[in-house]
Amino acid sequence: MTNWPIGISTGCFHSIPLVDCLETIRASGFSMVEVVFSPGHLDYRNPDSVREAAMRIDGLGMEAFSFHAPFAKDIDISSPDPAARENALDEILRAVEAAALLGVHYFVIHPGPEDADTPSREERLLRIENVVSVLNRVALRCAEAGIRCVVENKLPHLLFGNSSDILWILGAVESTQVGACMDTGHAFLAGDLYNLVYKLAPYLRMLHVHDNKGFADDHSPPGEGRIDWGAFLRELVQIEFQGALVLEIAGGSADPETIMARARRGRAFLRSHARRLALEPAPVVPHR
């Protein structure tokens, strides 16, 4: 299978109200979106604002495919401080309620703080156990709302940013409904992109796709960095991946037309590679 649906994260318009950028996204031929939490983009704490966004998405014939949970240094589900951890959980559960109102399929969450500090071995173990405990509670609420919780691999310099950590977390959570969202840019910077496909294969439900040159998290469109997309997509075929690809393109100060032109280039690049893969002959299995 190579006809994976390709959507886009609304994070490229994170400083613009969500309802004001949906028509621009739809006009570029994208009907599937991942909604982000950014302040000024969508107030996930306000049910009326979320309902307005849901109605606008539906009215444009679009689909809210996924919702990215809030992440910040003070939203730390691994914190050794019970009060801080409960506060983080409360914010995440508020976001789950917003995701339910939007009717998404997947709720994407970072497994830990946006922090590069290296704790002691004892604190690290405590923190990773806290992550699993919180994820069990988040996954339960997601399941009640008909949503699947997926854990995203983080940038390699952050706490729990290596593949062994995310695999440990996925193996330790009680719910079999918790899956993985693989971020191609993060995995490439970690030097583990191609291996991680196989490591996450049993859990892999969706992808965040973007490119970089191997030095910074550029969030460039596929084809504008150093990722070998032909090899990567071939590995998706080999593991029989049947999920969706969500473009995470940087917006910055660029105008909306420029941002969407870059998104269309990235989508066209991925589709071109996928078409070539579909035309490749099936591998010959030798007779024994």
Structure description:
The protein has an 8-stranded parallel β-barrel, surrounded by 5 helices. It has helices spanning 18-27, 47-59, 82-102, 121-144, 163-172, 184-189, 193-200, 229-238, 256-279; strands spanning 6-9, 32-35, 63-68, 106-109, 148-152, 179-183, 204-209, 244-247. It is globular and about 50 Å long. The protein has a single domain (6-278), classed as TIM Barrel, CATH 3.20.20.150. By secondary structure, the protein is α/β, with parallel strands linked by helices.
Number of separate domains: 1
Helix content: 40-55%
Major sheet characteristics = 8 strands, parallel, barrel
> Which fold name corresponds to the CATH topology?
TIM Barrel
Poorly predicted regions? none
Order of helices and strands: EHEHEHEHEHEHHEHEH
The name of the CATH architecture is: Alpha-Beta Barrel
For the termini, the CA-CA separation is: 27 Å
Proportion of β residues?
A: 5-15%
Find the CATH superfamily: Divalent-metal-dependent TIM barrel enzymes
Total strand segments: 8
Number of helices: 9
Task: Name the overall outline.
Answer: globular
Give the C-level CATH assignment. Alpha Beta
Strand order of the largest sheet: 1-2-3-4-5-6-7-8
Radius of gyration: 19 Å
Question: In summary, what is this structure?
Answer:
The protein has 288 residues and is of the alpha/beta class.
